[in-house]
Structure formats: structure tokens, C-alpha cells
Amino acid sequence: MAEAVHKFKLKKEDTVEVIAGKDKGKRGRILKIQRDNDRVVVEGVNIVKKAKKKRKQQDRGGIVEIEAALHSSNLMIICKKCGPTRIGYKFDGDKKVRFCKKCGEVL
């Protein structure tokens, strides 16, 4: 039985702040969104060590540090004016746009 995938308010390239977990307070850019399990990969946040196998002659094997996915509920989008905020939707003419709930600026 497949679960319903809800709409994400976050998008790729958005700047977000971590509001819970070991990296609380860190900011970064969204690199990848995994909609099927509500997770997001953020640049420079949630760094984990991973054992990587050597695939080709010139590749380096060993232990590498990569960004692991965080749950989307642990992130908050950054408004350029007022910092971490929630997002709302409104119609600008006939186009649906995201806006900052604190200052009302379009994101």
C-alpha cells in the first residue's frame, strides 16, 4: 500500500536552517529533495563518514565524508529580511507564490 506524498514547501537551492538535532543552528543550501520519504540533503550539514569502494583505477577508496539526508520537519527556510520563518502561499496576479509569514516578502 503506497503512502500519499504531501507537497513540499521547500525547493532545491533554498537556504535553510536546521532547527533540531546535532547540527541545530547550521545553515546551508538544499542540494537534493527525496519526496518519497520526506528527507532533504543540505550542503555542509549532517556530515557522516561512509566507506567507499574503489571503482576504477584512478578512484580513491577509503572513508569519505558526505552529507546525509535530514527530515524536512527539522528545517526552516531563511528569509533574506527576517531570518528563519514559515512559508505561506498567495496569488500574485494569476501566479501562486511563496511568501514569508513574518514580513510578507515574496520568497
Layout of secondary structure:
Blueprint: E1 15-18, E2 27-34, E3 39-42, E4 47-52, E5 62-67, E6 69-71, E7 75-79, E8 83-85, E9 87-92, E10 95-100
Antiparallel strand pairs: 1-2, 1-7, 2-3, 3-6, 4-5, 7-8, 9-10
Short recap of the structure:
With 107 residues, the protein is an all-beta fold. Helix content is 0%, strand content 48%. The protein is built from no helices and 10 strands.
Query: What's the total count of β strands?
Result: 10
Question: What is the H/E order?
Answer: EEEEEEEEEE
Q: How many helix segments?
A: 0
Residue-averaged pLDDT, rounded?
Answer: 86
Describe this structure in words.
The protein is mainly beta and 107 residues long. It contains no helices and ten strands. The strands form three sheets. The protein has a six-stranded antiparallel beta sheet, with no helix packed on it. Strands 4-5 form a two-stranded antiparallel ribbon. It is elongated, with a radius of gyration of 17 Å. The termini are far apart.
